[in-house]
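Sample entry was shown:
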Amino acid sequence: MPSPTPRQILDTLLPYLKTAGAYARQIQPRIAAQPAKAAGSDNFFAAALSDADLSVQTFVEVALLAHFPELRFYGEEHAQTYNTKYFRAIDLGPQDDYLITLDPIDGTQFYLDGHDNYQIILTVLNQDEFEAVLAISPSQHCYYYTVRGQGTHRGHWQDTMADCRPLMVQPKTPAVCLGFALTALIDPLKDRYQVFHTGSSYSKQRQIPNFNGLLSGDLAGAVLERSQFIDGAALAFMAQEMGYWVTTWEGQPPPPLHQCRDMRRPGLVIGATAEVHRDLLAAVRTI
């Protein structure tokens, strides 16, 4: 039997991810936080964990094992689920031996605080680069998908992938988002941009853009101090496919995935235009 293509993988898993998203949306008002992932961590985003993270991952694992048992799989909660032992591997393999990754609730703190800009992110990784990404936004009733070399598309909740429309870079405001540890970048940027810093700007009462604002048009740029394959690097890949400028902090193209360690790319600078990217890169070089 021939190996499934990245597009076939997304097509098959989309209905399951929509069901998982509907579940997450339904229980959000009643969700109870699990013990923090990293007790004592200053980064409350990295520490947040919910019942939904664990349930969504288990559901997607069941779907993957039923349809694509031959594929590699790495889920964010792999250490806590019952199914990790049934997958062939949880790491990158040789070229065209795809690794599926899952962030079951990206933006768990947003989710726990009742905001609507959390998402479920599934990726298809090759040895060198992302092949495809599917980002489901249950409470915004939409989803986004990217297939390598074919751009990024957006669809309403009921749409099939064939119904989705290509996305172009169209930021609504000159706003940028900074990773949790990047407080030092606020001052160099605040005279030209509305700066959202995930640490100091976050509020339980007032929603701020998450990094998926790159897709919705709420952000003209972002700087990530680290970019995990399962979330930040995936969103950067989607932004790049829709026309954003994406480089490392040194201004170089992101390295091939197999050259990265610990399932993450280095820090990334993402700009909707050459000017935005240049401003962000210049700010990074001051720290």
Observations:
- The chain has two domains: 6-166, 175-284.
- Residues 76 and 261 are 16 Å apart (CA to CA).
